[in-house]
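Deliverable D2.4 — example input (structure tokens):
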């Protein structure tokens, strides 16, 4: 069996979009390993305090957590064959934009998901993406196409 395609799912954490892609991967029987950041917001925000000790200011708490999270993000982005970044309705996902830029800098194929009304705001990100989708199903279809056996 061929090695699984590693796909990093970056972006918003306030919806079940990762689970929807995961379900599509299962249904389509795709040989894909899905990777992602820690999506439990509190766990991600508190990892520095929990692992290295409590900080007295929000700045240093966030600083430690960001660095520990960066270890995970950098490692998984490097492992990924493809990076998918989702920009959602809730909050501004600065980290998602950063991950998109980092993926491009590492020459990783970038797929982006966002609603049509975000097109203008994300035009620079979209310009670097190899595909811009509006649904998770479209991303799953792209991944399925990538894995087509040309000898079949």
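Example output (designed residues):
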């Amino acid at each position: 069996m061929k090695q699984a395609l590693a796909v990093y799912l970056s972006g918003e954490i306030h919806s079940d979009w990762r689970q929807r892609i995961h379900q599509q991967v299962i249904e389509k029987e795709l040989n894909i390993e899905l990777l992602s950041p820690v999506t439990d917001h509190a766990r991600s925000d508190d990892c520095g305090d929990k692992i290295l000790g409590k900080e007295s200011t929000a700045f240093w708490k966030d600083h430690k957590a960001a660095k520990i999270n960066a270890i995970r993000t950098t490692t998984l982005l490097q492992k990924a064959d493809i990076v998918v970044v989702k920009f959602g309705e809730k909050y501004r996902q600065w980290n998602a934009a950063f991950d998109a830029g980092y993926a491009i800098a590492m020459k990783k194929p970038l797929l982006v998901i966002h609603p049509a009304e975000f097109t203008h705001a994300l035009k620079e990100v979209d310009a670097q993406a190899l595909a811009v989708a509006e649904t998770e199903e479209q991303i799953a279809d792209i991944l399925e196409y990538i894995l087509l056996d040309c000898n079949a």
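The first helix runs from residue 17 to 27.
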